[in-house]
Write a structure and sequence with these properties.
A hairpin with a 7-residue loop joins strand 1 and strand 2. By secondary structure, the protein is an alpha+beta fold. The protein has one domain. The protein starts with 18 loop residues before the first helix and ends with a helix. The protein is built from four helices and four strands; from the N terminus they run αβββαβαα.
Length: 107
């Protein structure tokens, strides 16, 4: 039935993000923090391919992108080191920052 599809937003799995907005957000994060590295996360059944930017102190941001090649291109375009999270894992500083935020009641 067509009415099921009416007004339905594209899911993150389908890459329904605004690429220009994502690039702007990631560029702003990378330019206002030091020691930023990018980690590309693979798509799953639930989530789209994502890029996580992690600063020197562990602060991070994540944004969905349409595909793995686009994710690597966007991250490389920021001029920061880019890693495949399947090969490297996440840095400990990211987990430590998140734990601090939870303890302080910010997350």
């Amino acid at each position: 039935m067509a009415w099921w599809r009416r007004g339905r937003r594209r899911s993150a799995r389908q890459g329904g993000s605004d690429l220009a907005g994502v690039r702007t957000h990631l560029a702003e994060f990378a330019s206002t923090r030091r020691g930023v590295e990018a980690y590309v996360e693979p798509a799953t059944n639930v989530t789209a391919t994502t890029v996580v930017l992690i600063a020197h102190d562990g602060e991070w941001t994540r944004r969905a992108l349409p595909s793995r090649p686009v994710a690597f291109d966007v991250a490389a375009g920021l001029g920061v080191p880019v890693y495949d999270v399947n090969l490297t894992g996440y840095p400990a500083r990211m987990r430590a920052w998140t734990a601090r935020q939870r303890r302080e009641g910010r997350a």
